[in-house]
Amino acid sequence: MLRFVLFIPLFLFGSLANAEDPVFTTEAGAIRGYDPVAYHVEGKPVLGKPDIVLVWQDAEWHFANAVNRDTFAANPEKYAPRYGGFCAFGTSRGYKVSTQPEAFSIVDGALYLNYNVDVQKTWDKDRPGYIKKADANWATLKDEAYEPE
Predict the structure, then answer these.
(1) 49-56 and 4-7 as β-strands: parallel, antiparallel, unpaired?
(2) How far is residue 62 CA from its own chain's centroid?
(3) How far apart are CA 102 and CA 82, in angstroms?
(4) 3-state class (DSSP) for residue 41
(5) In principle, which of 3, 13, 85, 136 could form an S-S bond with 31, CB 3.0–4.6 Å?
(6) Integer Cα distance of 18 and 25 in angstroms
């Protein structure tokens, strides 16, 4: 099977070459192999296919179909989860933590992932407040190494 991999030069979107772990990645790829565009267009997590891949920010992103891959390639900042796919609530608290695909929300067109659905319930109580804190923390956290729990 032919595997299509599209490389997007980092200089087009701002380099994170100095970042230690800018994207939450597992052996399945960025954000556990789930399609970031599907969250926006289908409103649910959809596992990407291992042969529909795009490399962005030194991570392999998987997609359910070529249309989603091409949509992401045209504007990755719009579709990629905030805080590199690390837990939005954890980021608001000042640390990187993993996420689960079903613990997500779309706020003002942006995808936010959380550690699990219980953490997401806390996140949902004050999304604007947590986003403000997470935005401030991400400036320094993005360059820190991720220490898996």
Answers:
(1) parallel
(2) 11
(3) 15
(4) helix
(5) 85
(6) 17
Residue 28 to residues 25, 92, 112, 144: CA-CA distances in angstroms? 7, 26, 19, 22
Q: The tokens of 95 are what? A: 């640390």
Per-residue pLDDT in tens (0 to 9) along the chain, 149 residues: 444 444 433 333 333 333 457 899 999 999 999 999 999 999 999 999 999 999 999 999 999 999 999 999 999 999 999 999 999 999 999 999 999 999 999 999 999 999 999 999 999 999 999 999 999 999 999 989 888 87
Structure tokens at 82: 């905030």
The pTM is what? Answer: 0.85
What token pair was written down for 77? 């900042």
Please list, residue by residue across 12-36, b when 16 or more beta carbons sit within 10 angstroms of its beta carbon and e when fewer do.
Answer: eeeebeebebbbbbeeebbbbbbbb
